[in-house]
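Reminder to self: C-alpha cells first, then the designed residues, so the page reads top to bottom the way the pipeline ran.
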C-alpha cells in the first residue's frame, strides 16, 4: 500500500505535529513523527480493519505448509487437531507474519541504483530521533575582526588627531636644563609616585616605602586565587568591588593631595590661595 494511502488518526497527527513544531523540530521531521504516531493510533483504535487488510494466504498453500511442517521439524510434537467442522468446510492455517530484519544503520545516505530515478523517503534517511538541535544562548560575544579592531582603529585615529591639535596650539611644559646645584622647591616625584611620597609624610620610610607597597602588590597577585566567583555581574561581586573601590580611592586621594595640596618644603597649601605647585 502506498505511504500516502495508509489510514491514520488525524487528531493524533495534528497534536503530535503541533508538539514537535513547538519544540523547534524541523517541519519534515515533525511531519514524519506525527504520521508515525497517527498510524499507530489508528491501528490501536481499529484492530479489526487492519486484520482484514492483511494479505490472506494463497489457495493450496495451507495443505503444503501443513505437509512441510512435520518434515521440517520431525522431533516436534504434532499440533492438536482442530475441533470437528462440517463436511466440505476448509480450515485455514494460522497466519504467521514474517519479521523483517533490517541491517544496522551505517550513517551514510542511501544512493539510488543505476538507471533508477533519484527518489527517497524522509523516514528512510532520517531516523525519528536522528536529529539533535543544539541551541546556544545568545551572549555578549562578537568577532575580533571586523567589530573590535575597527572600533579600536577609529578610537586610535581620534586620539591621534586630538594630540596633533593639542600640540599645535599648546607648547610642552618643559623646564630649563637640570642643574645639580639647584634643587627645585618643592621637589616632587612623578605623578605615579606621588602617592608613595605622600605616605612618607605619615609613616616611617620602612612602612611607607616597603611594607605597604609589598602588601598591595602581593594582595593584587593573590586576588585570582582567592576570589573564584565566576559571575561577572556587579551584584554578585560586592566584596571584590568594595575592596577594589577602597584601594583605588586610597591611591587617588594620596596622588591628588601630593599634586595640588603640597607646596614649598612639601608643606600643606590651599591651591586657590597659595597657588598650584604642580608641573608635569
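Designed residues (280 positions):
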Amino acid at each position: 500500500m502506498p505511504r500516502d494511502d495508509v489510514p491514520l488518526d488525524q487528531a493524533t497527527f495534528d497534536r503530535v505535529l503541533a508538539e514537535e513544531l513547538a519544540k523547534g523540530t524541523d517541519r519534515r521531521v515533525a511531519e514524519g513523527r506525527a504520521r508515525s504516531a497517527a498510524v499507530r493510533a489508528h491501528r490501536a483504535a481499529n484492530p479489526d480493519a487492519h486484520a482484514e487488510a492483511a494479505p490472506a494466504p494463497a489457495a493450496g498453500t495451507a495443505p503444503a505448509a501443513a505437509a512441510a511442517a512435520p518434515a521440517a521439524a520431525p522431533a516436534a510434537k504434532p499440533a492438536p487437531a482442530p475441533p470437528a467442522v462440517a463436511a466440505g468446510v476448509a480450515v485455514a492455517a494460522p497466519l504467521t507474519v514474517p519479521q523483517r530484519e533490517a541491517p544496522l544503520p551505517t550513517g551514510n545516505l542511501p544512493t539510488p541504483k543505476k538507471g533508477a530515478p533519484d527518489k527517497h523517503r524522509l523516514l528512510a534517511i532520517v531516523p525519528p530521533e536522528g536529529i539533535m538541535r543544539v541551541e546556544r544562548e545568545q551572549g555578549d560575544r562578537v568577532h575580533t575582526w571586523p567589530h573590535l579592531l575597527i572600533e579600536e582603529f577609529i578610537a586610535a585615529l581620534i586620539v591621534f588627531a586630538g594630540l596633533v591639535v593639542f600640540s599645535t596650539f599648546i607648547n610642552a611644559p618643559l623646564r630649563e636644563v637640570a642643574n645639580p646645584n639647584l634643587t627645585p622647591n618643592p621637589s616632587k616625584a612623578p605623578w605615579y609616585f606621588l602617592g608613595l611620597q605622600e605616605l612618607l609624610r605619615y609613616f616611617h620610610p620602612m612602612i611607607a616605602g616597603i611594607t605597604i607597597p609589598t602588601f598591595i602588590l602581593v594582595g593584587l597577585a593573590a586576588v585570582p586565587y582567592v576570589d573564584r566567583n565566576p559571575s561577572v555581574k556587579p551584584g554578585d561581586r560586592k566584596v571584590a568591588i568594595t575592596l577594589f573601590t577602597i584601594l583605588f580611592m586610597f591611591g587617588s586621594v594620596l596622588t591628588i593631595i601630593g599634586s595640588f595640596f603640597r607646596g614649598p618644603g612639601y608643606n600643606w597649601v590651599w591651591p586657590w590661595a597659595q597657588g598650584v605647585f604642580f608641573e608635569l
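The chain has ten helices and no strands.
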